[in-house]
Write a structure and sequence with these properties.
Length: 203
């Protein structure tokens, strides 16, 4: 996980190796709203925890979530941006893969305007992968929406949705469990780093 200007970590990676997180993530995978978004029976492929505290009060600029976690690096066509993050290989798949994934952001604390909430550009996930000009264009045309949540609320978003967040102006805890779901296997020999479920290949 990136270190931010405050020197703190923005979050904790690789949480599907924690049995409690895996259990919750797998249970949620069966919810109709998840399978409706992925098209078929979904399974969790990556989980992270984000927190903003007085010690780690970070911000992230506008971006799309482009990386997935895989078990081993293999140079498969269309997979770019290889990076080892906390011991796990990450790559950027073609946009068609990201379009079929869904992310659940489960809020463990209230998140108000002063807690550095997520801001999103509605509709931006329908336009593929962006370069910096496309990001600027979307930002100039579509107003951002602030996602205010109570503890226990969940936000579902596509990885390609343009999003950002500012530092909290009144930092306390702002814990968000972020779980990404897919319902397809990767092109061989690539496999998801954390998913064990057998499921159809991407077509
Ligand atoms: O939780 C946040 O404020 C931002 C998280 C983020 O950047 C991400 O999910 O990619």
């Amino acid at each position: 996980m990136k270190r931010h200007a405050t020197g703190g970590r923005a979050g904790t990676r690789n949480l599907l190796t924690e049995s409690a997180v895996l259990r919750v993530a797998e249970e949620i995978a069966g919810f109709e709203i998840i399978t409706a978004a992925t098209g078929r029976a979904a399974f969790p492929v990556r989980a992270l925890l984000f927190d903003k505290t007085p010690q780690t009060n970070w911000n992230v600029s506008w971006h799309q979530d482009l990386s997935i976690a895989v078990r081993e690096r293999h140079d498969v066509q269309g997979f770019t941006g290889w990076a080892l993050k906390q011991g796990v290989w990450h790559a950027q798949p073609p946009a068609a893969f990201l379009e079929r994934m869904i992310t659940l952001r489960l809020h463990l604390d209230d998140c108000k305007s002063d807690n550095g909430p997520l801001r999103v550009i509605p509709g931006s996930h329908r336009d593929g992968r962006f370069d910096s000009e496309a990001i600027a264009r979307w930002r100039s045309v579509v107003p951002a929406k602030e996602i205010i949540c109570q503890a226990g609320d969940a936000l579902l978003m596509r990885p390609l949705l343009l999003h950002a967040s500012s530092r909290a102006t009144r930092p306390s805890h702002r814990r968000v469990l972020h779980v990404e779901y897919a319902a397809f296997q990767l092109p061989a020999p690539l496999v998801w780093a954390f998913a064990s479920t057998e499921s159809p290949k991407m077509d």
